[in-house]
DNA sequence: TATTGTTATACTCTATAACTATA
DNA sequence: TATAGTTATAGAGTATAACAATA
């Protein structure tokens, strides 16, 4: 039994612990986010907010769904007054999506709720624990990119 | 501007960073878990594995869905040979759920895949970064309970 | 011809309401 | 009467296949 084996075992344990804690915390945050829109709708709206002037095809690719699925989501969001569809300036096949003021407001409110819940939980931690999470956040972020 | 305000701001920033990194990592892990079963089915099967001899009502409450929704999930898992329904020993209205050997095997395989992916990502971190995550895991776990 | 987006259709997951069997 | 579970039915989200409009 060598050092590598020991390290691997340790990493497997860490992976197991992280898998459980990340899954649970994510599920809990989702539950705390208000329920005015579904995860699908929030995801699409958020993507439009981040990359203004997306087309439906780009949005479907970004959210990893097929174009017909996104057509439906867009129709719903448009009917609810949260985004608008306008003609593409040069290509008449395409459509350009933008957030309405109501869409922008709703999105910010949704984020605010989740973060308020999380901030409240963080306030109950010791300063040392908060420091650990402050160091962990960018590492977790990088893990998802790998 | 006092100390409290500064701390609160800092916590809000940490909350925002954690929300994003937790959400992304959770989404990515889900995508890495093989696709033999849906999240719903894995969740139900996992709950039966953890609390053997659950009834459908208990399982629905645990997974936070309505009983008819769980009836359907159970029917599917039973048809796929992953769990069994047996009579309750004393109350003939109730039903007792247990994992089959195939269900147990599939569940372990699903977890193994997710953890293998995560362990591989962890292996790419420095020892210092791994130490930070090792300290962070139990804190994240507690956050979801609060 | 190729691309963009939509419509048609089907499957899964979820819900509420109504029903059956048992307590 | 109350409880456990199921069946009936409907809405949301997803997919593939087929179509229309435009490039």
TrEMBL record, chains A, B:
Family matches, as InterPro entries: HTH-type_Bedaq_tolerance, HTH_MarR-typ, Tscrpt_reg_MarR-type_CS, WH-like_DNA-bd_sf, WH_DNA-bd_sf
Signal peptide (residue range): none
Matches recorded under Pfam families: MarR
Domain HTH marR-type: 11-142
Claim: tRNA-binding is one of the keywords in the record: no
UniProt cross-references to PROSITE patterns, sorted A to Z: HTH_MARR_1, HTH_MARR_2
The keyword DNA-binding appears for this protein: yes
Keyword tags: DNA-binding, Transcription, Transcription regulation
PANTHER family per record: CONSERVED PROTEIN, HTH-TYPE TRANSCRIPTIONAL REGULATOR RV0880
Name under which the protein is recorded: MarR family transcriptional regulator
Classification of source organism: Bacteria, Bacillati, Actinomycetota, Actinomycetes, Streptosporangiales
């Amino acid at each position: 039994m060598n050092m590598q084996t020991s390290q691997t075992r340790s990493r497997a344990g860490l992976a197991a612990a992280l898998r459980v804690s990340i899954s649970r915390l994510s599920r809990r945050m989702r539950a705390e986010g208000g329920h005015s829109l579904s995860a699908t709708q929030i995801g699409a709206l958020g993507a439009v907010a981040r990359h203004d002037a997306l087309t439906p095809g780009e949005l479907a690719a970004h959210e990893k769904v097929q174009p017909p699925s996104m057509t439906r989501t867009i129709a719903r969001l448009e009917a609810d007054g949260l985004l608008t569809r306008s003609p593409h300036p040069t290509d008449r096949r395409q459509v350009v999506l933008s957030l309405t003021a109501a869409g922008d407001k709703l999105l910010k409110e949704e984020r605010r709720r989740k973060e308020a819940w999380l901030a409240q939980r963080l306030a109950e931690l010791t300063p040392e624990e908060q420091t650990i999470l402050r160091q962990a956040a960018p590492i977790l972020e990088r893990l998802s990119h790998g």
